[in-house]
From TrEMBL:
Family designation: Belongs to the 2-oxoacid dehydrogenase family.
Pfam families noted in UniProt: 2-oxoacid_dh, Biotin_lipoyl, E3_binding
Known role: E2 component of the 2-oxoglutarate dehydrogenase (OGDH) complex which catalyzes the second step in the conversion of 2-oxoglutarate to succinyl-CoA and CO(2).
Catalytic activity: N(6)-[(R)-dihydrolipoyl]-L-lysyl-[protein] + succinyl-CoA = N(6)-[(R)-S(8)-succinyldihydrolipoyl]-L-lysyl-[protein] + CoA
Domain Lipoyl-binding: start-end pairs: 2-77, 101-176
Cofactor: (R)-lipoate
Domain Peripheral subunit-binding (PSBD), residue spans: 209-246
Organism: Actibacterium naphthalenivorans
Name of the protein: Dihydrolipoyllysine-residue succinyltransferase component of 2-oxoglutarate dehydrogenase complex
Subunit structure as annotated in this protein's UniProt entry: Forms a 24-polypeptide structural core with octahedral symmetry. Part of the 2-oxoglutarate dehydrogenase (OGDH) complex composed of E1 (2-oxoglutarate dehydrogenase), E2 (dihydrolipoamide succinyltransferase) and E3 (dihydrolipoamide dehydrogenase); the complex contains multiple copies of the three enzymatic components (E1, E2 and E3).
Biological or metabolic pathway of the protein: Amino-acid degradation; L-lysine degradation via saccharopine pathway; glutaryl-CoA from L-lysine: step 6/6
Gene Ontology biological process terms, A to Z: L-lysine catabolic process to acetyl-CoA via saccharopine; tricarboxylic acid cycle
Length: 505
């Protein structure tokens, strides 16, 4: 029986790739999930695993060819001899105990995420584990990923220690289903150390064909092959290798100026230093810092303010909250009112819901609402998709569910991607006024604040009303002042008279 190997999904807006390297040739035995070839897109390198165990058959797309999504790459003939490569790492186990060695691999981390840090191992070498029992936790730029045991057995070796950085589809550990599986650990451990050896040899060989995109980039940037260390098969230079070499050269050139411009840490007395604690920033915190700074550096960010009398919204909520919770099984909060008000305003001022792509403006005829949520590890922004088509109850349920998953670190990458506008509620922490920072590539973010009784003039008289300051930060490259102010006024009007939302006014 033959199985087709096809081009996998390459990512949003990516329709084709170049076949960079074949790791197998016709006649080779392959195991399930063993890497067959490497595809190169304009953004990332994609590895293609074998869907079945068997023997490599015809290769349809040769190295250097351009292929589209779902195009046929090769054929595999399923056979019994193929699993041999998977057991090569620990041959002693099956021979002595009848068990089977199973690799614990890094799971799919999400679109555009290529590496993670091993944060915690819940098991030690020699421990017995059940199938799907959590072995370790990985930390990516945005979320924590738990790695379950692929089968019941004994943990025979840990290849990536806590604090190590691992790549997507990398090997974390080895399990054995045999009773005496702990013994192979010393034999398995040297395997990762031996893996880099082939990469060193190609430096002396000149007959290795580099990736087409790599050669093009080297020509454009004036970089010679001698300046680049290839990480592809047999030392083949990939596009990412050229980019790393260019970045390394840039960093080296900028090292002296950077050291001069960076604010040095003030001298600390010895007795004070002894009482300090230095903790490495988590990947999530580093990403938050980088993205927020990138947002400031890229967008022409401006903030406009207004205030809203929350009397009508609070009265409506008070009147119906018990009936609402009884019918829908979820509490009626203020976030559904603000989400509805923003969706209503975004229809009138669509540029606040748009984004810039090069020299184009991309208008979104839908609202994927990001709701910023503080968690013990940092700020995350889960996205409620098609919020403009949801009812108050559906919005409240989605916010409650996403918020709970965010606090537990269970959000997936997909749940935090694709947002078109964001709401950030600093009022829950007591903030009276702030200027939120854009969540790129979005062009607008609404900042909510604390509801506070203040004296205001209504009908010529001074009265006490529950007031809230609203802040809209927007990208002035795409949103003009008129549009920003109009958006904020429409949100204010909808909250001060929620009936307008029902009448689409």
């Amino acid at each position: 029986m033959s199985t087709e190997v096809r081009v996998p999904t390459l990512g949003e807006s990516v329709t084709e790739a170049t076949v960079a390297t074949w790791f197998k040739k016709p006649g080779d035995s392959v195991a399930v999930d063993e890497m067959l070839c490497e595809l190169e897109t304009d953004k990332v390198t994609v590895e293609v695993p074998s869907p079945v165990a068997g023997t490599m058959g015809e290769i349809v797309a040769a190295e250097g060819e351009t292929v589209g999504v779902d195009a046929l790459l090769a054929m595999i003939s399923e056979g019994a001899a193929a699993p041999a490569p998977a057991k090569a790492a620990a041959p002693a186990a099956p021979a002595e105990t009848g068990g089977e060695s199973i690799d614990v691999m890094v799971p799919t981390l999400g679109e555009s995420v290529t590496e993670a840090t091993v944060s915690t191992w819940f098991k030690q070498v020699g421990d017995t584990v059940a199938q799907d029992e959590m072995l370790c936790e990985l930390e990516t730029d945005k979320v924590s990923v738990e790695v379950p045991a692929p089968a019941a057995g004994t943990l025979t070796s840990i290849l990536a220690q806590e604090g190590d950085t691992v790549e997507a589809a990398g090997k974390l550990a080895v399990l054995s289903t045999g009773a005496g599986a702990a013994a192979p650990a010393p034999a398995a451990a040297p395997a990762p150390a031996a893996a880099p050896a082939p990469a060193a040899a190609p430096s002396s060989g000149k007959d290795v064909e580099d990736a087409p995109s790599a050669k093009k980039l080297m020509a454009e940037k004036g970089v010679s092959a001698a300046q680049v260390s290839g990480t592809g098969r047999d030392g083949r230079i990939m596009k990412e290798d050229v980019q790393k070499a260019i970045a390394a050269g840039t960093q080296a050139a900028a090292a002296a100026p950077a050291a001069a411009t960076a604010t040095p840490r003030a001298p600390v007395a010895a007795d004070d230093a002894a009482r300090e604690e230095r903790v490495k920033m988590t990947r999530l915190r580093q990403t938050i810092a980088r993205r927020l700074k990138d947002s400031q550096n890229t967008a022409a960010m401006l903030t406009t303010y207004n205030e809203v009398d929350m009397s009508a919204t609070m009265a409506l909520r008070k009147e119906y909250k018990d009936l609402f919770e009884k019918k829908h099984g979820v509490r009626l909060g203020f976030m559904s009112f603000f989400t509805k008000a923003c969706c209503h305003a975004l229809k009138e001022v669509p540029e606040v819901n748009a984004e810039i792509d090069g020299t184009d403006i991309v208008y979104k005829n839908f609202v994927h609402m990001g709701i910023a949520a503080g968690t013990p590890t940092g700020l995350v922004v889960p996205v409620i998709r098609d919020a403009d088509a949801m009812s108050f109850a559906e919005i409240e349920k989605a916010i409650a569910e996403k918020g709970a998953r965010a606090r537990d670190g269970k959000l997936s990458m997909a749940e935090m991607q694709g947002g078109t506008f964001t709401i950030s509620n600093g009022g829950v922490y007591g903030s009276l006024l702030s200027s939120p920072i854009l969540n790129p590539p979005q062009s607008g973010i609404l900042g909510m604040h604390k509801i506070q009784d203040r004296p205001v003039v209504v009908g010529g008289e001074i009265v006490i009303r529950p007031m809230m300051y609203l802040a809209l930060s927007y990208d002035h490259r795409i949103v003009d002042g008129k549009g920003a102010v109009t958006f904020l006024v429409r949100v204010k009007e909808a909250l001060e008279d929620p009936r307008r939302l029902l009448m689409d006014l």
